[in-house]
Design brief:
- With 391 residues, this protein is α/β, with parallel strands linked by helices.
- The chain contains 13 helices and 16 strands.
- The protein has an eleven-stranded mixed β-sheet. The protein has a five-stranded antiparallel β-sheet with strand order 12-11-15-14-13, covered by helices on one side.
- α8 (200-216) links the parallel β7 and β8.
- α4 runs parallel beside α5 (129-138) and α7 (165-181) packs across α8 (200-216).
Length: 391
């Protein structure tokens, strides 16, 4: 009799304290169910169009990647993905789709000069060793190569270091010991753009020295290089590539931010411009044999241009919110640029939005495979999950 009473009390307690779901909770539950991974790829579902049939086609499908292709690398070339600590979704993407990448480059570190004429690496507090283990667990062949920028450097620092063999060796030692101590597989150096390609022999000297030190420590060196075709100056050219290619495993070309150079509303990383940058490097007769070292930079972010000429960078979550609020009636496909845009009006002015699409990704994958080069993505957390069906 006592057991029956307790059971009745328990049943009464459960039913008496649970409240019905609110409309908002029901909506969230429905959205979560709708966005689960599914069997078919975006191609099998007919979603790779130059222009989506509607804004809802994107918002209803952007998280529905194929669970059968999570561990399958579809792109034939090498793939590098940047991850930033200010966009946590990138950390999840690197684990979920880790099997697709050859390199993962977290944006954590910078090397800075000190008042004593020495150097130290800052940003170590951002290093997530547990996350690194998880990424490697999903892909034992992936190389973790954090980006390293030269923060707080002046031309005087560059001159001083390259004029003193002792200081240069100290710089190399600081980098190698830090990266080896953290058990990283390599480094992605970003130094060229900071000095705008000035004092090229000194830049070559530092890059070669760090690369040789990393190689002795069984680690690789990748180098970020700026675009050279207008609207940007040719500050890294085919001769720089020829000089540095023996020391560099991959050159990461920044074929995006085109709109920064023009100052106008337009594509962020137009493909016709990107391919001209690649061909510029390959013009040298000796460089063609090393085209596999070149990574075509592909943006996973977009831009929202206002009528006053200003713009805001947007990532995937912001793009989805914009689609839901603006509900654009049509999209425009820009043929040469291979980019998608739409327009909307707020209370003050007309906006023009450029953001990657499935067709955008497909066209760049096809171009990279045709040129037999790799791809580098800035950055993987800024995209939409179903993009990875194509990679």
């Amino acid at each position: 009799m006592r057991r029956v009473v307790l059971l009745c009390i328990s049943v009464y307690f459960v039913h008496g304290t649970l409240e019905p779901l609110t409309k908002e909770e029901k909506k969230k539950g429905k959205e979560k169910k709708e966005q689960r991974p599914i069997l078919k790829t975006v191609g099998e579902r007919g979603l790779i169009n130059t222009e989506p049939t509607s804004w809802a086609e994107v918002t209803k499908n952007y998280k529905k990647y194929s669970r059968n292709h999570v561990d399958k690398k579809m792109f034939k070339g090498d793939l590098l993905g940047f991850v930033t600590p200010w966009n946590n979704h990138g950390y999840d993407v690197a684990k979920t789709f880790g099997a697709k990448f050859n390199y993962i480059s977290p944006v954590w570190l910078q090397i800075v000069p000190t008042t004593q004429g020495t150097f130290k690496i800052k940003g170590g507090h951002d290093i997530d060793a547990g996350w690194v283990r998880d990424v490697r667990a999903n892909n034992t062949n992936v190389k973790i190569a954090p980006r390293l920028i030269f923060g707080e450097w002046s031309m005087a620092h560059l001159t001083q270091v390259t004029s003193s063999e002792g200081e240069l060796m100290h710089l190399v030692q600081v980098v190698v010991e830090f990266f080896k101590g953290e058990k990283f597989d390599g480094v992605v150096l970003e130094i060229w753009r900071q000095f705008q390609g000035r004092e090229k022999p000194r830049l070559h000297q530092i890059i070669k020295a760090i690369s040789e030190g990393m190689s002795e420590g069984q680690m690789t060196t990748q180098l970020v290089i700026p675009p050279g075709v207008r609207p940007f100056p040719e500050i890294f050219d085919k001769y720089d590539f020829q000089i540095l290619q023996p020391y560099i495993e991959k050159f990461v070309m920044m074929t995006y931010d085109h709109h920064h150079g023009t100052g106008k509303a337009g594509p962020v990383g137009p493909m016709d411009w990107g391919l001209r940058n690649i061909l510029l490097i390959m013009e040298h007769e000796n460089n063609d044999n090393y085209r596999h070292k070149l990574l075509y930079g592909v943006n996973f972010y977009g831009a929202d241009f206002r009528g006053d000429g200003h713009f805001d960078a947007i990532v995937g979550s912001q793009y989805i919110d914009l689609l839901k609020s603006a509900k654009p009636s049509q999209f425009s496909w820009h043929l040469k640029a291979s980019e998608l845009s739409f327009e909307y009006r707020d209370n003050k002015q007309i906006h023009k939005v450029f953001y990657p699409s499935l067709r955008f990704i497909q066209k760049r994958v096809e171009a990279a495979e045709r040129f037999k080069i790799g791809i580098a993505i800035w950055e993987i957390g800024q995209g939409l999950d179903y993009f990875f069906d194509l990679l």
